Amino acid sequence: MTFQKTLTSAANDELKHLGRLLGNARERRKHGQLVLEGLHLLQSAIDAGLTIDAVYVNESAQHHGELLPLLARLARRLAVLVATPVLAKVTALATPAEVLTVCRRPAPQPTAAGAPCVMLDDVQDPGNLGTILRCAAAANVRDVYLSKGCVDVYSPKVLRAGMGAHFALHIHEAADLPAVLATWPGRKLVTHLEGSVSLYGQNLAGDVAFVFGNEGAGVSADVLAAADLRVRIPMPGHAESLNVAMAATVCLFERVRQLEAGS
């Protein structure tokens, strides 16, 4: 593989820009870009048809068997080799990934008709958000709505946790959740401990909106008022609550189970 050039200094303007994209949500929004770390996310981006602006290859991984076929699918001018110690200064990972890919932020997509959706109210932990996206994609959800208070969905930590799920979903950022719920044509279920009914007694087929709240505060009062049903996940043990990502997994795959049982 012939690379466009080799970068050997962290003072290089390209790498400074890469570092700002990795560390700052405002920079990512300003430039309409995101950074993918690792081979799997590069492959996911290529398969999804994302616009790729640059590919920075870790010098120590330049002969990796999985990397070369991926680079062969890209324009040769995109591939830049970076010395491993230099790349280590740019990324927050203890060990730099094989490749860092700069992509254009995906354009908003229209809502998918006749499908369930997930709405997230101020979910702030990157690992939780990425896990929920991965779960939603696996459960055949198409639309995910994020309130303004959610962590940046295209932060490196969320992207790593999502494992490519971002590109299988229609992600709606900075959504006015009460307004979206007001026009949602199907059932609107919010996980809540008070005044709730068991998740397992509900018919989850059809256009169901699943609403999950902040890790500590839960859903806001406005969002809670806009939902038409409060559900709880039965917990016969000693835990008071579930992590929001785990709660989302239980709810979404209970829907999958019901659909499988009814087919």
Subunit organisation of the chains:
single chain
The percent of residues in helical segments reads 25-40%
Strand order of the largest sheet: 8-7-6-11-9-12-10
Which structural class should the secondary elements be placed in?
A: alpha/beta
How many runs of DSSP E, i.e. beta strands? 12
Mean pLDDT: 93
Order of helices and strands: EHHEHEHEHEEHEHEHEEEHEH
Give the low-confidence spans: none
Which geometry do the CA atoms define? elongated
Specify Rg, calculated over alpha carbons: 20 Å
User: What's the main sheet like?
Assistant: 7 strands, parallel
The total of helices stands at 10
State the end-to-end distance: 50 Å
Content of β-strand: 15-25%
Helix-strand layout with pairing:
Layout: E1 6-7, H1 13-23, H2 25-31, E2 33-37, H3 39-48, E3 52-58, H4 67-72, E4 79-82, H5 84-90, E5 99-104, E6 117-120, H6 126-138, E7 143-146, H7 156-162, E8 170-172, H8 177-183, E9 188-191, E10 197-198, E11 209-212, H9 221-226, E12 229-232, H10 244-262
Parallel strand pairs: 1-4, 3-4, 6-7, 6-11, 7-8, 9-11, 9-12, 10-12
Antiparallel strand pairs: 2-5, 3-5
Commentary on this structure:
- With 263 residues, this protein is an alpha/beta fold.
- It has helices at 13-23, 25-31, 39-48, 67-72, 84-90, 126-138, 156-162, 177-183, 221-226, 244-262; strands spanning 6-7, 33-37, 52-58, 79-82, 99-104, 117-120, 143-146, 170-172, 188-191, 197-198, 209-212, 229-232.
- The strands form two sheets. The chain has a seven-stranded parallel sheet with strand order 8-7-6-11-9-12-10. Strands 1-4-3-5-2 form a five-stranded mixed sheet, sandwiched between helices.
- α4 links the parallel β3 (52-58) and β4 (79-82).
- α6 (126-138) packs parallel to α7 (156-162).
- The longest helix is centred in the C-terminal third of the chain and has 19 residues, at 244-262.
- The chain is elongated and about 60 Å long.
- The mean pLDDT is 93.
